[in-house]
Amino acid sequence: MSHNKLTYHVNTYNRFPVEFIKGNGAYLFDKEDNKYLDFLSGIAVTGFGHNKPELVNAAKNQIENLWHVSNLFESSPQEELGKKLTNISKLDKVFFCNSGTEANEAAIKFARKWGNGRSTIIAAEGSFHGRTFGSLSASMQKKLWNGFEPLTPGFVSVPYNNIDAIKNKIDESTAAIMLEPIQGESGIIIPDDNYLQGVRKICNDNNILMIVDEIQTGMGRTGKFFAYQHPDILPDIITIAKGIANGIPLGATICSDKVASAITPGNHGSTFGGNPVAVAIANNVVDLLTGQTLNNINEISNYLKEQLQTSNFTSIKEIRNKGLMFGLELDKKIDAKEIASALLKNKIIVGTAGNNVLRLLPPFIITKEQVDFFIETLKIVLK
Is 155 left (phi over 0), alpha (psi -120 to 50) or beta? Predict the structure, then answer.
């Protein structure tokens, strides 16, 4: 399904034939001023919707003062954001970058530097950690590797949600285990309740690091600030991006003191990382992610799930979700991409993931009325 009309772009995306020119709340508007309900949030990015006044004002105030100075100088707003993220995560230090793949590159480098000769990182089949060489090599999906080999060495794969497989792969070269608390790109794959606890115990027993990729699951998406907080564990390294600045590029690698102590000036860096405008917005995003917001996420999540269940969609084989991260696995006879296209024609934006899964990542400000509109439209489309 190719809609490409791009003349000057490298052909990296099959784009839908719609261009959005403005947004407000949970809605996007195209050039003809048609209104679309946004159930994708820019792929789990605009958690607080579009044009939120507090975030717009934070960006405007910052951009009128300072856009960029580089990380060679002190930054109080970065310190403020670092303090908030370490308090919430219960870890100690933060590195700022621009994207999820960069956050994961930093995590890989930090783990190897800490490993001091131990360099192997265990990753899970079906994982997605990014598209630069380190993060791509940790992404255990062969279809992503085609044409790009040789990959970065030092990564081994195990089946996701399988504790014994990890135990069997650990040897004297193992530095870390890297995984997503929920696999997003593979179709919202949710592991057993005790999986992350089991991985944490293995890491403790073998003195290896636990890296949790929270790029899609973090920043409130699953109904807690971080998804690893559901099983109440503490990783050694957490990576975040996507929702942290509601759409302005920003990523972060949060780590414990024991990891941070291995890093010295010159080991790693980023020209644009922790850009003043992105950090100004992120400081406001974190402040907005209060208990009240998280309660709303869980409440509307339950409502959306109930509506999906009680509507008895015969073509939906399984509903998988945590908070406002939903994967609807469709009957094999139905193509998820075609359903996404049909919903777009009916003015609703959704995504797809994994093996024939409709992916719903609505903004945290979604209302029950908007959920009802989505359900009624899905009924029409699936008929």
Answer: beta
| Residue 187 φ/ψ, nearest 5 degrees | 120, 30
Is there a shared CATH topology between the 20-49+290-382 domain and the 54-288 domain?
Answer: no
Report pLDDT for 128. Answer: 98
Residue 15 C-alpha from the chain's centroid: 21
Residue 2 has pLDDT above 90, yes or no: no
C-alpha dihedral, 272 to 277 to 279 to 285, nearest 10°? -140
* CATH for the stretch 20-49+290-382: 3.90.1150.10
pTM (two decimals): 0.96
| Region 285-289 average pLDDT | 98
> What class, spelled out in words, does domain 54-288 have in CATH?
alpha beta
SS3 at position 350: coil
Q: Domain spans of the chain?
A: 20-49+290-382, 54-288
Does 6 have pLDDT greater than 90?
A: no
293-341 pLDDT per residue, tens: 999 999 999 999 999 999 999 999 999 999 999 999 999 999 999 999 9
Sequence-distant (6+) residues with CB within 8 A of 36 are 18, 20, 27, 28, 29, 30, 344, 347, 348, 349
Are 55 and 281 in contact by the 8 Å Cβ rule? The answer is yes
Report the 3 state secondary structure along 208-262.
CEEEEECCCCCCCCCCCCCHHHCCCCCCCEEEECHHHHCCCCCEEEEECHHHHCC
